[in-house]
């Protein structure tokens, strides 16, 4: 029988072999990838992956589309909403993505978009990075396969949010919550309040027919502890957000819609076009999209939220008052968008 020492040695040998295999596989995949593109071009040729995005400039929607490459977004939760969100941002050419999730891909996920049956058993962040890198090698990826709510991981999570930007040491530009439970939302909320980090919340109801997104600017708009959005919007008991042992329903449609309105809001926020929504709900039963804005609650339980509110008030008081002159907009009947 082999001794423990011999077995340890064998494990080490096998580990090294695995690393070699992985490196070989990566090199093979790299050879299949298109080369990285240094500068986004607006040239209209079939081989340019950015021509349709750069056309947003020509259409007068975005001033400087290429700026998207300077931004870093953290996606927490790479499930039904998070994975599609990450894919959209990757295809749009975001600078860097940080992905956080501790789950594995399962066949029970196949009613949603993004993951494929052959990825079952892989960690969601690993499978996602692999697919996304293949779609757009220009994007930088950083993945963390852990639960952000445990103490050590939470500290590490905070550190990566505040230092994991495109330029190491700089904070990320935006954190997106795509998680499915109250505890993880509260952890993101706590971290962002402490860091003064702007973030967006998203959620889909357990019965799969409603969802929402929300922009949270610490100190300025209501944080998740000031008023949990799902509870406020749908007037449902917070405990029904995710009940233990209850198999939640999910639809690729609702998840896709929520990911779509989330990333739309991200693009509008980062590239400065259109109106950024503070809260946008989606009720699939009635096709109803409620919007609203909620101010931060001075009695919020989170002390960092209250501190951020004080700072925001101070900043607002110091800001020179600009007189707003309202000009009534003339109604012009433009040619419609369909060119008819
Ligand atoms: Zn608050």
TrEMBL record:
A GO term for molecular function: UFM1 activating enzyme activity
Domain THIF-type NAD/FAD binding fold: 50-301
Record's keyword terms, sorted: ATP-binding, Metal-binding, Nucleotide-binding, Ubl conjugation pathway, Zinc
GO annotation, cellular component aspect: cytosol
Annotated signal sequence range: none
BP GO annotations: protein ufmylation
CDD domains reported for this sequence: ThiF_MoeB_HesA_family
Domain of life: Eukaryota
Keyword Metal-binding: yes
PANTHER family the UniProt entry points to: UBIQUITIN-ACTIVATING ENZYME E1 (PTHR10953), UBIQUITIN-LIKE MODIFIER-ACTIVATING ENZYME 5 (PTHR10953:SF9)
The protein, known as: Ubiquitin-like modifier-activating enzyme 5
Species this protein is from: Seriola dumerili
